[in-house]
């Protein structure tokens, strides 16, 4: 109560739910600060090797439940609120969802922060404090409309502004050559614009509260130069305008998940946070060291995709230009410090900045990139004389068309390890994008299959199942998920199966209420909750699911006397605002929902819902309630997937292709407990290479597919605009069906039938669901992070001293 009065400045009668959220968050934060300082101080005193996770995205979601749960004070807090007549749920619901990321890549970064802190690893996250996170999605007339996501509008109780942690970051200008004190050629970057990067720190509470790490996000501030000197009116207003423009750097997250826009502001964002982070890392290192030789023994820098890859040129610049190291020495240190994670093979998502743009925005970096390239190609030329095609593939510069810098090649060359995010993806990296580099550096590529944190994705999101698990096997699974395998034998226990079903049913009721609130649709709790939640993208094939939905709808209408297993098709996901096809697919799902849900002839046996504004908070409600998990991307295209892991851990059975981590999920849960269908990545590759795939033939030979497509194309779902879906039908037919939707349709329907038949046998279904939960232990991000720590970073746990006296 005192907290409310003194920190929020209100008395209890005037307090809103948001005020209570801020009150509770500030009280929780107070419990964290001492341990946070202890942790930081322990790292400092031990001069521990730290790992720095550089990521343009951190998809955190809400933090209140997470903090309370990891600190072990959930019940205490609930009781305190009870005494005030307040509901915990209401307070929790008042927190905005921090959506500083697009999807898998950003959420992976957030899971890694949780896992590093939970295992006592000295890990820092570095990124951008976007004022606007990923847009809020609404449906207007069934179409996606984007609204700004104003998560900071009412303040952020978790962050600490550090106005004293401020670094200059430069853009534009030119490079001057001069002779240094020993007469060597040297360079300086002059006449550049300056922006300041200001730090905001958020404590990352590890499970048990022993370790509290730091997420440091940078915010752009104008330099105060314009306050000095004399201005006439015009110059003054120009200077103020300049200030506003430079602060746009940290204004908004780019909403593209797997396509790059090549916009200058995006390049500037990447350099902005990377430069500030490197300056901060070097400052911390120099507190203990006078030479840079030990940098690789004290700092591991992980590049989350190529977004921070300009850091390789930046570290070279800092070492060579500012600290006067010799090139070869600086390069050795740089390579020993950086490692790079690749998250996609999609060609349109591989960053390639125009040389002309980098020359203009970062002139010194362009020189450094040329120098790195020249030295590398010269060395390679000596070995592979004559093979010019190979050399041009290895080059950092793509010379076909407008000259561009291949950021993936730069990241590869400047790193000591390069990893993919699932076994299949890593293999494909070696065969495709990095084929030549892999030949050149056969030990550099390694696999680190993604994982998810069991704290957020099981303990917090699914209290019903978590409590059940803990009553049977204790709570060791929370910090060591491999222990969950002890549930396997419980799959044979009829009482346990009953309780497992009860937990699932409770979650389904919660989701049904959420669906009713969000869409007005009533769904049957006893239907199969068939869930596809992820970004909207053609390669993820929401269309395949829609086509099956329409085919099932037709079958149900044709055979009204059959006793159908009721199905609820649940979709959620955002489309990039400029991705017209993905937005059209959203409209199609909404149009199909409208027709199916209001057709009395299917007797409520089929419902279709598309939930708006999918984010971490929505995922926490949807995932624990799922029966069937749709992981149906075209094989070879989904690098890993992580939603697949969250759903299986929560006892959903997967229907999926042999893509990304689905392959490893099958190995762990067993082929009998997963519905695999469709072409393999090799088959996809062969079919595309043969050029012989003809969707028209496939469609003609499959009446149910033909009927579904005909309905879409003749306007059965869009009577107000019968041509609306022409682009979709076109893509699936004359367009050549690049994602092989039609090719996999028949086998997908077979797998769907198998799932529906199995669902009739609730005991058998539950047995398999339990075996999924029990066998997903390996997919904990604790395991993933440990692999990085041991095989890439060489960092080790530190146990913070919380005695108080020793250090103070
Ligand atoms: C993203 O979420 C992913 C890859 C990207 O490539 C970009 C973004 Cl924003 C540049 C996803 C992959 O699509 C997904 O398969 C993977 O599980 C996830 O990254 C984490 O590795």
Automatic annotation (TrEMBL):
Q: Which GO terms describe its molecular function?
A: 1,4-alpha-oligoglucan phosphorylase activity
Keyword check for Transferase: yes
What reaction gets catalysed by this protein? [(1->4)-alpha-D-glucosyl](n) + phosphate = [(1->4)-alpha-D-glucosyl](n-1) + alpha-D-glucose 1-phosphate
The EC number(s) this enzyme carries = 2.4.1.1
Q: Which cofactor does it need?
A: pyridoxal 5'-phosphate
Does the record's keyword annotation contain Metal-binding?
A: no
One family name in Pfam for this protein: Phosphorylase
Gene3D superfamilies on file: Glycogen Phosphorylase B (3.40.50.2000)
Q: Which UniProt keywords apply?
A: Carbohydrate metabolism, Glycosyltransferase, Pyridoxal phosphate, Transferase
Question: What sort of enzyme, by top EC class, is this?
Answer: transferase
- Write out the function statement from the record: Allosteric enzyme that catalyzes the rate-limiting step in glycogen catabolism, the phosphorolytic cleavage of glycogen to produce glucose-1-phosphate, and plays a central role in maintaining cellular and organismal glucose homeostasis.
**What NCBIfam families does the record point to?**
P_ylase
Family, according to the entry, reads as follows: Belongs to the glycogen phosphorylase family.
- What is the protein name given in its UniProt record? Alpha-1,4 glucan phosphorylase
């Amino acid at each position: 109560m005192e907290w409310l009065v003194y920190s929020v400045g209100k008395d209890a009668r005037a307090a809103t739910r948001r005020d209570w959220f801020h009150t509770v968050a500030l009280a929780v934060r107070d419990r964290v600060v001492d341990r946070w300082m202890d942790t930081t101080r322990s790292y400092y005193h031990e001069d521990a090797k730290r790992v720095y996770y550089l990521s343009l995205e951190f998809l955190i979601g809400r933090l209140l439940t997470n903090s309370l749960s990891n600190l072990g004070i959930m019940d205490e807090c609930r009781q305190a609120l009870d005494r005030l007549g307040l509901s915990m749920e209401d307070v929790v619901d008042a927190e905005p969802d921090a959506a500083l990321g697009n999807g898998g890549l950003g959420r992976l970064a957030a899971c890694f922060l949780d896992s590093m802190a939970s295992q006592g690893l000295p890990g820092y996250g570095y990124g951008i404090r976007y004022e606007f996170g990923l847009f809020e999605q609404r449906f207007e007339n069934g179409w996606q409309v984007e609204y700004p996501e104003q998560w900071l509008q009412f303040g952020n109780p978790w962050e600490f502004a550090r106005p004293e942690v401020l670094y200059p970051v430069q853009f534009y200008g030119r490079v001057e050559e001069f002779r240094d004190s020993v007469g060597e050629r040297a360079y300086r970057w002059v006449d550049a614009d300056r922006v300041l990067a200001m730090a905001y720190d958020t404590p990352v509470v590890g499970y048990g509260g022993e370790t509290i790490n730091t997420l440091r996000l940078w915010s752009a501030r104008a330099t105060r130069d314009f306050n000095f000197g004399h201005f006439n009116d015009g110059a003054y207003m120009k200077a103020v305008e300049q200030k506003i423009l430079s602060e746009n750097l940290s204004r908004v997250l780019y909403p593209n998940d797997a396509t790059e826009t090549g916009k200058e502001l995006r390049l500037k964002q990447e350099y902005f946070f990377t430069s500030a982070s490197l300056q901060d890392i070097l400052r911390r290192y120099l507190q203990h060291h006078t030479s840079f030789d030990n940098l690789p023994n004290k700092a591991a820098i992980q590049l989350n995709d190529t977004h921070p890859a300009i850091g390789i040129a930046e570290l070279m610049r800092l070492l060579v230009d500012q600290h006067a190291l010799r090139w070869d020495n600086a390069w050795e240190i740089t390579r020993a410090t950086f490692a790079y994670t690749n998250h996609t093979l999609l060609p349109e998502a591989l960053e390639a900045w125009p040389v002309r743009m980098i020359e203009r925005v970062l002139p010194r970096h362009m020189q450094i990139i040329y120098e790195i390239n020249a030295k590398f190609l010269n060395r390679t030329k000596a070995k592979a004389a004559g093979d010019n095609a190979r050399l041009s593939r290895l080059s950092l510069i793509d010379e076909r068309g407008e000259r561009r810098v291949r950021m993936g090649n730069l990241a590869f060359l400047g790193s000591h390890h390069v990893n993919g995010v699932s076994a299949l993806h890593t293999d494909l990296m070696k065969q495709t994008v990095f084929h030549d580099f892999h030949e050149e550096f056969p030990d550099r590529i390694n696999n680190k299959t993604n994982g998810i944190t069991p704290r957020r994705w099981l303990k917090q999101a699914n209290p019903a199942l978590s409590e059940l698990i803990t009553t049977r096997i204790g709570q060791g699974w929370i910090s060591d998920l491999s222990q969950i395998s002890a549930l396997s034998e419980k799959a044979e226990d009829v009482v346990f199966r009953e309780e497992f079903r009860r937990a699932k049913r409770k979650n389904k009721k919660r989701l049904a209420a959420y669906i009713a609130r969000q869409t007005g649709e009533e769904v049957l709790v006893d239907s199969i909750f068939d869930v596809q939640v992820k970004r909207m993208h053609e390669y993820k094939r929401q269309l395949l699911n829609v086509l099956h939905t329409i085919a099932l709808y037709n079958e149900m209408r044709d055979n009204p006397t059959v006793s159908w297993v009721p199905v609820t098709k649940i979709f959620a996901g955002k489309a990039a605002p400029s991705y017209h096809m993905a937005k059209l697919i959203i409209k199609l799902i909404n149009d199909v929902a409208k027709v199916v849900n209001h057709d009395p002839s299917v007797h409520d046996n089929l419902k279709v819902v598309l939930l708006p504004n999918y984010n971490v908070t929505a995922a926490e409600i949807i995932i624990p309630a799922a029966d069937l998990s749709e992981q149906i991307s075209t094989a070879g295209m989904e690098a890993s997937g992580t939603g697949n892991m969250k759903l299986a851990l929560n006892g959903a059975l997967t229907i999926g292709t042999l893509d990304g981590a689905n392959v490893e999920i099958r190995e762990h849960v067993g082929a009998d407990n997963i519905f695999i269908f469709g072409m393999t990545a090799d088959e996809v590759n062969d079919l595309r290479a043969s050029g012989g795939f003809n969707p028209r033939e496939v469609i003609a030979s499959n009446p149910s597919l033909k009927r579904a497509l005909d309905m879409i194309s003749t306007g059965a779902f869009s009577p107000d605009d019968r041509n609306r879906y022409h682009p979709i039908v076109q893509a699936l037919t004359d367009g050549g069906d690049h994602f092989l939707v039609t090719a996999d349709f028949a086998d997908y329907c077979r797998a769907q039938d198998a799932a529906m038949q199995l669902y009739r046998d609730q005991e058998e279904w539950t047995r398999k669901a339990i075996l999924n939960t029990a066998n997903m232990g390996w997919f904990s991000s604790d395991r993933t992070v440990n692999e990085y720590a041991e095989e890439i970073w060489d960092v080790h746990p530190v146990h913070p001293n919380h005695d108080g006296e020793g250090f103070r």
